[in-house]
Structure to design on (151 residues):
């Protein structure tokens, strides 16, 4: 789609995570309850409906090759990005954190009051991709599970 100024309309459509063990990652994201789509792709790539952008899982080395980037050394430290699971209440944050940890996530940071008036915690998936579970002022979660930002 192109706007009036003949510029493409920006949009984020897919987030692809490089994973070491596609089978284990599929099992993890299935256990979290994300709805897998296009299952005909088998274990080559997995696509999940997240209620917004699609989450894709792809083998780490193949994703690096596709992007023409080296796959080694793999970072062990913070990678400069997080994924987020926005919630409607503090109680939901606690429930999501407990749920994810019960499904094999690793605790990164326990849920806590934030300095901006929110409440958040962090867990990591099997490859260390960090997820923030958060309720934040100005960001509402609607009945459609989508986030709605204050104007």
């Amino acid at each position: 789609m192109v706007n009036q100024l003949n510029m493409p309309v920006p949009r984020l459509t897919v987030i692809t995570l490089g994973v070491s063990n596609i089978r284990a990652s599929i099992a993890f994201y299935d256990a979290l309850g994300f709805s897998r789509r296009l299952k005909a792709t088998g274990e080559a790539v997995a696509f999940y409906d997240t209620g917004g952008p699609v989450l894709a899982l792809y083998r780490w080395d193949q994703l690096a090759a596709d992007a023409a980037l080296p796959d080694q050394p793999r970072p062990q430290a913070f990678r400069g990005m997080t994924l987020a699971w926005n919630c409607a209440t503090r109680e939901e944050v606690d429930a999501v954190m407990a749920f994810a940890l019960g499904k094999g996530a690793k605790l990164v940071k326990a849920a806590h009051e934030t300095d901006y008036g929110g409440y958040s915690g962090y867990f990591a998936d099997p490859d260390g991709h960090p997820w923030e579970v958060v309720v934040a002022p100005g960001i509402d979660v609607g009945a459609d599970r989508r986030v709605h930002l204050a104007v």
Observations:
- The chain has two domains: 1-71, 78-151.
